[in-house]
Design brief:
alpha+beta; eight-stranded mixed beta sheet; 39% helix
């Protein structure tokens, strides 16, 4: 048998190379809740951010003690990986019943901030009263981008349940066989679009960009200075507002007119992608006024219309 012999320097480089797919921490939702609560202080949308902090605290409680949830079929996952498909495919999985248990589990764990807003109480009541078929239809609409088919007040809570289910499966399923793919525009684990990009500031990933999945929160490596929507390597614009959360910029592509926010952890080491995105909605308004489109929604703030 013959093979390539690696020199010591090559062995060290191979051993230190960061993984293509990175899993989120198991206290992901607690970290998001803490960050949202901190960003809410003095923020124009403080009440809204505190509400979403409560949403994330309930998500963490359920993730720590999840309801009975069927595990993904190992053979099905292996076949998907072998064919370069996401093993936890959300576009098909959302049409099955497996994730629906997370809706009731999250509703039982959620403690709304006081005083409870009547509109919030009505939205929670609508979700509690909805039949399983209706909840599934809302989930399918969110995953497929048919946002107008979901009541705006209910959408973030359905989104929270979707995030819970897919983060749970991501953290409990062996996906080590997923190989690195160039220009991976959707999550290699579940197939959802990226919510944002993160530029890491230390360790083996220092200076590397990872895209953060909008659904399962997995991160995958994607080269910098390339549009993750149209793959253009021509000029990209990096826009930010002085009063937006420190370290957040929007990478806007003049070619396809899409943008994706980037969180620079070197500038904001305590930053977290979802909370930074929600706290910088003024940047979305600026880009919308300039005719740019978001690549993907934040499931805790789903826009109206189609996308």
């Amino acid at each position: 048998m013959s093979g390539t012999i690696l020199e010591p320097g090559q062995i060290a480089a191979a051993a230190s190379k960061p993984a293509f797919l990175q899993l989120p921490p198991r206290n992901l939702f607690a970290l998001r809740a803490e960050r949202l609560a901190r960003l809410a202080e003095g923020h124009a949308l403080g009440d809204y951010l505190r509400l979403l902090a409560a949403v994330c605290r309930a998500q963490q409680q359920v993730l720590d003690a999840p309801p009975p949830l069927a595990a993904p079929d190992p053979q099905r996952c292996a076949q998907a990986i072998a064919h370069g498909l996401p093993p936890l495919a959300c576009d098909s999985g959302v049409r099955e019943d497996g994730w629906l248990a997370m809706v009731d589990a999250w509703l039982a764990a959620f403690v709304p901030p006081e005083p409870v807003n009547p509109a919030l109480a009505a939205a929670l009541g609508q979700l509690r009263a909805a039949a399983a078929s209706q909840r599934k239809a809302w989930g399918v609409a969110l995953v497929s981008g048919q946002f107008a088919s979901v009541p705006a007040a209910v959408a973030p809570f359905v989104g929270a349940a979707l995030q819970l289910a897919w983060s749970h499966w991501l953290l409990t399923t062996d996906l080590s066989a997923i190989g690195e793919a160039e220009d991976q525009q959707t999550c290699p684990a579940c197939g959802a679009l990226p919510m944002a990009g993160v530029i890491h500031g230390h360790g083996a990933r220092n200076g590397l960009r990872y895209l953060v999945c909008s659904q399962c929160a997995g991160e995958w490596h994607y080269v910098r200075l390339k549009c993750s929507h149209c793959r253009s390597t021509k000029r990209l614009d990096y826009l930010h507002l002085e009063h937006s959360p420190h370290g957040v910029k929007a990478e806007a592509c003049p070619q396809c007119r899409h943008y994706l926010k980037q969180l620079y952890l070197e500038l904001e080491p305590a930053g977290e992608a979802l909370s930074a995105d929600l706290a910088s909605l003024d940047l979305d308004l600026l880009l919308d006024a300039q005719g740019y489109l978001r690549q993907a929604p934040n499931l805790l703030l789903v826009p109206g219309g189609e996308g």
